[in-house]
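Let's sit down with a protein and look at its sequence and fold side by side. Go ahead whenever you are ready, and we will take it from there.
>
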Amino acid sequence: MKRDIDALMASRHLDAMMVSGKVLGNPPLSYLLNGVHVTHALLVKKLGQTPTLIVGPMDREAAAPAGYPVVLTTRYDYGALLLRHGGDPLAASVAYYRRVFEDLEVAGRVGAYGYVDQGYAYTLLRALDTELEGIEIVGELQGDLIRTARATKDADEVARIRDVGQRTVEVVQQTLAFMQSHRVGRDEVLAKADGSALTVGDVHQHIARLIALHGMEDPEGFIFSTGRDAGIPHSRGNRDAVMRLGEPIVFDIFPRETGGGYFFDLTRTFCLGYAPEAVQRLHRDVVECLDTLTGQLRAGRAAREYQQLACAFLSARGHPTLKDDPATQRGYVHGVAHGVGLDIHEAPGFQDEPGNTTELVPGHLFAMEPGLYYPDEGLGCRVENVYWISDDGQIQNLTDMPTDLVVPVGEGVV
């Protein structure tokens, strides 16, 4: 959480940190700006002190709600520095940061964060580290300070994620209603008013419209796949495929707040009209696996154990798993859970690897999503909910939607 940032800085022996880049698509900066929308920013924070936010003049009023002292870029006059250094952008940038650090009295170890082009970051940070007296630029490869802070969510963040979750559920429910509004034609295919078949592409268009109508955006896309495609975990679906009764539908939707805010992640598996026995079995095994896992969620337990539990449960039901064969493309083929926040996949991580020492703690918010996949048999199933561990250690399910498999449809339902 943001309240942990100073402690995280101290544990890394940082005297200061800087977070920079465009704000849109830059979760580390969005996180620290408290949802404020500006174009480009440099945030500088010294240990134990309030951050300073540096923005261009056009963003001066938009930056104010972030709650930090705001300094305009004109104070450091990059244009004049560029002229002084003969048009050399690297030399001018080093001089610019020298002015910033001197003005804000920054010295010592400075952590560098934010999403920028890799080549730009490498060139600039190496130059700053080499040429600025009294400054040591510090980078982190994994588990960096801001990702660690973001892994635990406070009540305000959870309220925003819960709201996105409620709107996401409405999109799913309205998508089901859209399919239910069609009659069943020949060969158990849903038919439109003109008699042509309703296709996966038609449903995709409707979903995209619903996401926008509910005030969300869809930067990562969504999964709505049927039949064999449902048996391929990240297949988005064949847009030309027709919507037919009895085929499994995997609907995995993960929109976020408009403007680069918080994501939600929800997956359900459906069959229109009726579900064949093979689909019922997969769905039953997946839902019971999820119920078993969530029944054992608790703070203090190693996150990687839940992947082990999922493999053991599904293996006992007769399905191939990654534990049995890490290269399997049938059965249980992916990780069981992941953090959700300003990125659709973030900490905490649940991978069953020796280096994963993560333990669940209050504030962790994550999606749990066991699934089973048999593409050659035209079968796939995944069910996913989002959970939060509250400050008192209680497990809260933020996904208010049943896991029913069969979606009744109109005329001709079997």
